[in-house]
Amino acid sequence: MKLSNNTRLEVRELTKIFVSGRRKITAVDQVSFEIHEREIVSLVGQSGSGKTTIAHMILNLLKSTSGSIIFDGKDIKDIKKKIYWRNVQGIFQDPFSSFNQFFVVKKVLRDSFKILDKSFNNEEKDKIIIKALESVNIDPGDVLEKYPFELSGGQMQRIMIARIFIIKPKLLIADEPTSMIDSILRANILKLFEKLREKQGTSIMFITHDIGLAYYVSDRIFIMHRGKIVEAGSAEQVIMNPNHTYTKGLIEDVPTLHKEWILTKRS
Amino acid sequence: MGKLLTVKALKAYYKLRLGEKLRAVDGVSLTLQEGEVLGIAGESGCGKSTLASCLSGLFFPPLKYQKGNITLDGIDIIRTDKQTLRKSILGKKISFIPQSAMNALNPTLKIEDFVADVMQEHEPDLSREEAIKRAEERLEVLSLPKDVLKAYPFELSGGMKQRTIVVLSTLMNPEIVIADEPTSALDVSSQRQVIELMKRLLQMKITKSMIFITHELPILRHVADRIAIMYAGVFLEVGTMPQIIFDPRHPYTKVLMSSIIVPEKGMRERKLPLITGRPPDLRKRIKGCRFAKRCPYATDECRMREPDMEETDGRKIKCFHPLKGKEIKQNEVI
Amino acid sequence: MKLLKTLLKSKKFIIGLCVFLLLLFGSLIFTTISSHDPAEMIGFLYEPPSKEHLLGTDNFGRDVLIELIYGMKTSIYVGLLSGIIATFIGTTIGTTAGYLGKTIDNILNSITNLFLVIPSFVILILLSVSLRSRSLTLLAMIIGITSWPWTARAVRAQTSSLKTREHVNMAKLNGEGYVEIVLKEILPYMLSYIFMVFVLQVASGILSEAGLSMLGLGPSNTISLGKMLSWALLYEAVRTGAWWAFIPPALTIAIITFSLLYMNTGMDEVFNPRLRS
After folding, report:
1. Is domain A7-253 classified as CATH 3.30.1330.30?
2. pLDDT, tens digit, for every residue of B89-133?
3. What CATH code would you report for C10-31+56-271?
4. Helix C64-100 with C225-234: angle, nearest 10 deg
5. Domain spans of chain A, in order of start
6. Which of A3, A151, B121, B166 has the highest CB neighbour number within 10 Å of its CB?
7. Interface size, chain A vs chain B, as Cβ–Cβ contacts under 8 Å
């Protein structure tokens, strides 16, 4: 695993405040970090920690209140959305709701060509689609003419990844991509993310609440709590030698196989 | 220690439109001893939740009972009429906490109204004040705040709601608690608190035994005495917690265990098993071993005939070619 | 297609649809092949039902049954057209407001609320009075233009919840624009709902036309069920006991609206998971 030190994405003092009526909720509070080329990082936090809000801001689906996001040296405010999304893509938690249920898989995958700058005819598209499906270990004949509800969660999530193989972005934001998938099939999905990095040099950011998963897949981990990143570092360091009390507590709360689980801690 | 609950060759199915049968529980036998926690684990759709709801003896359509026995403390649950079952067995002898119980609380009722309703259904003579007082005492004993009773469901956090549900469903000291995924959809600290509460109920002898249904094996590692692994409507392996977690013998159990990801030393170096395919369609009759299609060790025999459940060293396996202890070592953690 | 298939599982929908189609095609076919002129005076005033004139004659000595069939066609035409107009305006405004949000939503929402507060029937009356000649189409358009706010409101609410779905985000990441997203990613999810609302709009359009016509503000130079009622009222059919002049049109209006509402209930059962059991 070669890691280059070229920064792919830099997040500087990113803040998001949601206003509803008179109430102001600071969902993301002055968050800064960077993601390097070919790097896999995880943003770990419990529900309500603001991690999904960050994901949406990085994906340019949500405007930040202040702070900046720099992609390949350019503020994303100055990058055309279409060009940005050619380079930065996302995968969401629930593969079923990520698909328009009225379209068959083939149509959904053909739609993803829209973001590319080159235009393809349907025949060329289908060739690429078939290749992409094969690289996620799906027999194209099994799925192309099917509707999302006719497929399993694991198949659907792999199709979402096939879409990434088509677009070939430089950065992928994966929001809880395995939380709806049985553990037994999870390994297959994780393997595909590895393959994305190996074959296309994609940087990947996992957004997850699963500390075990983050530890297993990431080079670096950022721990988020109440809108702030409380601890960041290499996976080994953050999980095995946490510094921050919140991180320590969080890791203690997770049951493992070989350590006793401290059940009677007061909080 | 006696047997509290015995299930023999239980079969139940869902009646689908077009008259199809989905055999969700297809011949399950189990025993639950007094003082024991039995964990039931399996992938989604394996029938574990259905099994849990069967154990309450109430078969709500489209779920239908097909055959087999459920005996609770000498009472034949299936042949008991629903009235008696509701009045004097459910909640008193056996309490069932369904998967999304915490979201099923009536949002317009305070928790105490709910308590009064439920208690009075079982004990019509009980006054409302009495019922609430009992709940208060119970919360106190378990060192949980009493004010949850005065709250509406939406005022409680997910974790608190789930703990409240657990307390309320054990108010009448049921001998057995059946909890279906009580910790899924909770964040890790609430998860730990719910488990802690459940363990305390056992320690304080408020309840005698528990059946804990989950897909999260690391949790079972810390709460279960015995674990049953369910797949496509049947148990494939049943054994003590250490047998199942640290020394699985059924190939499926083995795959399941080695796909566990937890934050502990050595995890990053571990290879995860790459298994493909899906569990068989339970609407169709399955020939041979249910796992054969995905099993790396399957032989023609496996594909032809379904193996029987056989017991060795206190563990039961439904497999013609169980793994030997040695094969386990190569992939073990640490 | 799937939509239709699921709908055909509902008995209520089928019954409603059959009754409606029967009336619609009955009147359409009869009016094209028949040589009767509904305005022709074929008898004396208020002749009771007889073999020649099954439903008797009206105040001008015209055959009530033939009038009824022509009137039915008119009513359904007005209902359908006003329903289409109201649904179209409501859906366009609702999706735009719901999807774009912010300032545009505020503006459109205010307009919608304004229309909701002003009693639409009063606008209808004012508009109708101010027009010298009222063709059927014009009347239908007026009804349509005054009755979209409820649709807009409901569609807006659904759109603003649908636009946060992940497949909409996915479409944005594919570079799809606003119009494409509304048409492809949001509308299909509301289609069943919009169809349901449309049916209700048709029913209320028919009722509005009847109401306006009864007040004497009906379409010029045509027969409609409402106008029949208006004549009966004007020429004292009630007092003279000529029940055949007003009960049949009233009953026909009731049957048409009932068939539409029955269709709506059937659809509700199919589409609304809470009512399905």
Report:
1. no
2. 888 899 999 888 888 888 889 999 989 988 888 888 888 999 999
3. 1.10.3720.10
4. 120
5. 7-253
6. B166
7. 110
